[in-house]
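Posting for a labmate who doesn't have an account.
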Amino acid sequence: MQEIHFENQVAVITGAASGLGQAIARQLAPYKVKLVLVDRNAEQLSAVAASLNAAAYAIDITDEKAVKQLMDDTGNKYGRIDILVNSAGITGITNTKSHLVESEDLRSVFEVNFMGSYLTSKYVLPWMLKNNYGRVLHVASIAGKEGNAGMLAYSASKAAVIGMAKVQGKEYAETGITVNALAPAVIRTALVDAMPEEQVKYMTDKIPMKRCGSLEEAAGIVAYIVSPQNSFTTGFTFDLSGGRATY
């Protein structure tokens, strides 16, 4: 099996204070990747960044000016940005039928899950184009492919993220930049633990393996997706669903 190498690349990871984002940062750290960690939880982010000798940006990824400044600061400091992993996300209110969904909640979920991923990619891509190289990974969800009942805002926002990865993958296919999505089923994170147990059971029962995925499993596949070795796959949605995905 081909060994993964990163050669002191620069990676920006959102949602890095906890859950999948933190697990991905810890997975990449031994490869000597220069980590730039992003989260709006300043205190928790600071502790994670300190443990990994990483840079920390406590910003809201829906703030366009702040996102642009983050990418400019990082690009100017290192002269390059090689990897972007969009792991930040929220579920919003769940276990709610569509006619009862609050418009304000739906908008806030789209702002974080879709607009946050759009803004970070918008401002990182010019830096990647300068070097004709880059790896962008948008963390979506199996809910974006199949739809989870009771999760309209989350499912629709992640479907939009998958659509964006398909578009961007085609747009930058000849530039040395790949753009892909990851569609996990239920991964045991604080985000999932905060959801109603009924909603978690509904999602887990759909998984043929009848279990949640682990953070280690997710971080492992991410390391490959954003590696130089993954050079001929773009605009693709990687499965991490325990057999649930059917397309």
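Reply:
Got it, the structure tokens are right above this. The longest strand covers residues 177-184.
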